[in-house]
Amino acid sequence: MPKKGNRVENWNVSYEQLGTTYRESIEDIGDLVNNLQYEFVLEDIVRFLPSSREGKVLEVGCGGARTSLYLANRGFDVTCSDYAPEAIRLAKDNFAAHGARGKFVQDDLLHSILPAESFDCVMSFGLLEHFEDIRQVIGCITKLVKPGGIQIHCIITKKFSTQTLVNVLFYPYRFAKDLLRGNFRGIFRRSYRDFPHYENTFSAWEYCRAFREEGNEVLRCEAGGILFPFISLSTGVGKAFLRAFPVSLPRLIRVTDRTENRVMHILSPTFYIVCRKQG
């Protein structure tokens, strides 16, 4: 059984203090990474869905629903669902701040009130790693997809990756900074920043097998977020990278994150999977 991480008992706590979190302007490395992810999703919807602009898109576990907002701004009919009321509040705030239209549903994915086979595309970002039984949740998602429709998922996993390397690299800097500021409580744990919220560590191949077992054809299984540690850089350093490599950096991220390569999978902190519902 894959090892577990830290279970999130109350997602409202994660969202209740957040204001709007979406922007398309690229001001730092994090903006670049986010906007490239939006572009990747749009590219795959257009590639794998005929008449994609007329289709219905659902984002489950939407959080701030930033990818849905990106699609809504480009004419897609989007629905955003999440179990946490504060996530729905944040998603609505993001849409309202940009004058976008969308539907919002507070919903328990495992016992969904959404109609079966009613969406052309269902997507999630940082959701599936929170379930111990991935076949169950993938089955529930697949029920919402029309036959011939697609799913797009970005999944974070607990394994060795470039994120591990950057955590080690930045540990002395963070430790020294807290030490000088007198922030002694929890200094060892806090200095090693890691993504704490996951409840499984399944491999990309195990996820792909689960998608197939639930009646899907896997279209893409890519490494993702290999250059993700760059967003751990300070704002000033991140902006300097963008100024120095305004063209080559996005191209490099495309090479690392859009390549189905075993070496990239070894280094990646995330998986990006696209599949089509058969039938």
Question: What this model shows, in words?
Answer:
The chain has eleven helices and seven strands. It has 279 residues and is α/β, with parallel strands linked by helices. Helix 3 links the parallel strand 1 and strand 2. Helix 5 packs across helix 8. It is globular and about 60 Å long. The protein starts with 10 loop residues before the first helix and ends with a strand. 36% of the residues are buried.
Question: How would you describe this structure in keywords?
Answer:
2 domains, alpha/beta, 279 residues, Rossmann fold, globular, 7 strands
What's the SSE blueprint?
Elements: H1 11-15, H2 29-48, E1 56-60, H3 66-72, E2 77-82, H4 85-97, E3 103-106, E4 119-125, H5 134-144, E5 145-156, H6 162-181, H7 187-191, H8 204-213, E6 216-224, H9 235-244, H10 248-257, H11 262-267, E7 270-277
Parallel strand pairs: 1-2, 1-4, 2-3, 4-5
Antiparallel strand pairs: 5-7, 6-7
Intertermini distance:
32 Å
CATH class of the largest domain: Alpha Beta
Tally of helical segments: 11
Domain module count: 2
Please name the CATH architecture of the largest domain: 3-Layer(aba) Sandwich
In short:
It is built from 11 helices and 7 strands. With 279 residues, it is α/β, with parallel strands linked by helices. It has 2 domains: 209 residues, Rossmann fold (3-Layer(aba) Sandwich), CATH 3.40.50.150; 35 residues, no CATH class.
